[in-house]
Amino acid sequence: EIINGVVVDFPFEPYDVQRKFMHSVIEALKTKRHAVLESPTGTGKTLSLLCSALSWIRRQSPMAMMMLRRNSMCLSVNFHPFFEKVGEIRTSEFRQRFHSIFAISRGVNRKVRVFYASRTHSQLRKVMLELKSTNFKNIKVTVLGSRDQLCIHPTVSKETNLSVKNLQCKLHSRAKTCHFGNRVETCKRDASLVEMVDIEDLVSKAKKLSCCPYYVARDLQENADVIFLPYNYLFDPHARKNLNINLHNSIMILDEAHNINKVCEEAASVSLLSSDIALAINEVTQEMQSMYNQQEDYEFFVDRDYGQDELCSIKEILLKLEKAVDNLEFQGSCGSATHIGSYIFKIFKSADVNENSYQMVISILSKISDTLSAKEGGTSKKGVSLKKLADIISVIFSLSTSDRSLADKYFKVNLDCFILCRQVYVESSALTKVPPLNSWDSLDTHANKNAKKVNFWCFNPGYGMAKVLDSGVHSMILTSGTLAPLAATIRELNIGNPIILESPHIISPDQVLVNVVCKGPTGVELRSCYMNRDNDQYWKEIGLCLQNYLRIIPDGVLAFFPSYSALNKAVEHWKSTGLWAKLLNIKSIYVEPTRKHEFNEVMADYCRAVSERNGRGAVLLGVCRGKVSEGLDFINEYGRAVLICGLPYPPLLDPKVKLKKIYLDQTNRTIKLMSGDLWYQLEATRAVNQAIGRVIRHAKDFGVILLCDVKFNQKSILDNLSKWLQPLITNKSFGASVASIKKFFNENNDRVSSLAVRI
């Protein structure tokens, strides 16, 4: 089918909403613009993304090959005569320069590739399955993961500290002491690794071939057409560097990107603990002693890239930095203080770390870290604090001088420091302070003190986004089922004038019922708020709502609370009053766990309870922004209804939340970005939109959405819910809501037998 001038290879007749979606993607690619596309879950946006982007790339391929040949010929003509003139003495030097120039040329004329990013590898696995159903299933694909996921070294893989694991892996790789790493060049051409495999398959196949899956995936991306990866790998500068990610001339697809603003902010933020500095000082001190012992006894010999003078210089810098952090004063009796962003450079300047010296400091810290980690055959856990400090300095000084002036103009940090992008926040961990016994020792060497944490927080997601887009990205396609309101997302990310699309749902209005319920069955107002956190009457009313709804809703039901504390409060109250037992008599109950290792078991139990024929079904109690609400499929009977029991506002007294609101209010006076109050409200409604998206997972699915809080009656809240949902929302009394639900499921019973899609 021809869409926007491109023959799109699609596996079936696309819906109209998919045609419009693919038209927008192709328009962005043709014009080298970015796109912000909202399409509800179940509208087939994944296939639309892949098929439109890959069809456009296929159309460009002949032209790209012609340009590449032309540039290769130019290089050959211009440089071959010079090779003849260069003597043997300079051949090596020239070849190095030539390959550098040729590498730049390859970057400029690199074939267009797709970096397809989502939040988790489980989401990417589903995308890869959909790609296999198309005619593009034979393209070159690779998936990038972390060492934590991919390492198969018998010792390193068992390390639980990720920083230690990364260091040990790098050292084994550098020393050629990892059997699996040494076989990467031999194995990466194996046909089984070039096939479309997810992260688990990659590990399995690499084990059979006895090669390292981490480095194989990293090398395979050079010639891949599509690279799948979690999107934090794109925005974390250290991850980009470690994985050799080159975004030049790439199409960057960010799927499930409703949290991308926060990802961009966090990628440009760091936290420095006074204990980090103390540990670094102690490690440098131990290394100085080790070098002294080496001079006394040759048996202690360790090859190093630095000397005693460099160690002394670094120790002096670290001691000054520790003193500077220790001298930071808290404001009032609150045990905290806030400064503008550029204040962070004042702290480091007092330790002689500045624009001229920071690279040298990072280099020496990294060298010492590598040497300490290399001891004991690469299994030592030392050097981690030095590496962390090097990474912190790297992030902070990634701001060029011009960046800092922009930051001072637009961002703020609480004491006159950064204004536009960053803020510095200092907090205490309340320990007793003891002065050092010797000025050459760390304060923490002798006793605990008022340990401090200096947070360097970025509050402008556009800063982190620009760092990535400035890498030469052809187009960025940002999409999710819950991006609303799009205007606020675009302004915050500062991505200019993108292609915009807000797609309707492909379902008909009779497939979904949306009720706002302001009062429970006994007439008590449903208002989740700080004042009601210990109100037994409120928790009883929420429980009675759930009890009545579970009686009339078949199969699986999801109920989301604003926070884990609210969820725990509800469960505690219901158990103490006997309501929990009454709920259990209706359906099996499962609670979202906070521990990662328990999650899969709880989900399996919930699905098993729903699947039981002639069973009662089950209810899963979860949390907005929790794992249940963020990307899992509750298809068909596994998600017949979702209850939202309150709006999940961020904690208002959290320093980061307060500073974000202040920053936005100050910026909004000149830039008209958004107010702090609007951002605060959007944080809640975006989380609600995401939780609502767990139901209605395909064109024939159906379900009920119950917004159980009086605040959902406010126009300002309703306007920020997903656009496709807004026309369907009705305000009902509790009794009228129960009656409408009964009628809804009676009318939709005939749909059940026609459903072909199962979980």
From TrEMBL:
Organism name: Rhodnius prolixus
Task: Output the superkingdom of the source species.
Answer: Eukaryota
Show the Gene3D superfamilies listed in the entry: P-loop containing nucleotide triphosphate hydrolases
Which reaction(s) does the protein catalyse, per the Swiss-Prot or TrEMBL entry? Answer: ATP + H2O = ADP + phosphate + H(+)
List, for all copies, the residue spans of the domain called Helicase ATP-binding. Answer: 4-310
Task: Output this protein's name.
Answer: Regulator of telomere elongation helicase 1 homolog
Chief place of localization: nucleus
Question: SUPFAM superfamilies under this entry?
Answer: P-loop containing nucleoside triphosphate hydrolases
State the UniProt keywords alphabetically.
4Fe-4S, ATP-binding, DNA damage, DNA repair, DNA-binding, Helicase, Hydrolase, Iron, Iron-sulfur, Isomerase, Metal-binding, Nucleotide-binding, Nucleus
UniProt-recorded Gene Ontology molecular function terms = 4 iron, 4 sulfur cluster binding; ATP binding; DNA binding; DNA helicase activity; DNA polymerase binding; hydrolase activity, acting on acid anhydrides, in phosphorus-containing anhydrides; metal ion binding
Family matches, as NCBIfam families:
rad3
Offer one example of a GO biological process linked to this entry. negative regulation of DNA recombination
Q: Which Pfam families does the UniProt record give?
A: ARCH_RTEL1 (PF23109), DEAD_2 (PF06733), Helicase_C_2 (PF13307)
User: What are the annotated GO cellular component locations?
Assistant: nucleus
Q: Where in the cell is it found?
A: Nucleus
